[in-house]
Amino acid sequence: MQVSFDSDKRKLLSSLCHGAIFFSTALFSIGVPIVINLLSDDPVVKSNAKESINFHFNVWFWATVIGVPIAILSWITFGIGGILFFPVIALGFALHWGLTIWAILHCLGKPDEPFRYPFIFRVF
Question: Which end of the chain is less enclosed by CB atoms within 10 A, N or C?
């Protein structure tokens, strides 16, 4: 017996999982893919939820590794360090938002195929 899943529901839930990262400064954003992973029985949605959780961890990890030293340098140099490293921060946001938009577009365009972010470490 083959089980079929609703394509529109799959698109919505997968896009919600990946789109939650736009609220990553609020720690509850990771709750969206966690809850969807627990409640959904669709294997593609579960895969997208796990990938989104992994992406959350990567964004937070790299923001800490790069952001804390820049913040300390900026504080020590009265803001000059922050200005000098603005291109690094801008690149980080461009990658963060660009990869998320790419994931959402992938989920909407190819709902039967889970999205995988390139170059991230995966805990789940």
Answer: N
**Hey, what amino acid is at 71?**
A
Phi, psi of 78 (to 5 degrees): 55, 40
Please list the alpha-helical segments (H only) found in the chain: 7-19, 31-39, 43-76, 80-84, 86-109
Contacts of 80 (CB under 8 A, 6+ apart): 74
Mention every residue, 6+ apart, whose C-beta is less than 8 A from residue 97.
Answer: 22
Whole-structure pTM value: 0.89
> Two tokens at 57?
């961890």
Per-residue pLDDT reduced to its tens digit, 22-33? 887 677 899 999
Residue with tokens 């360090």: 81
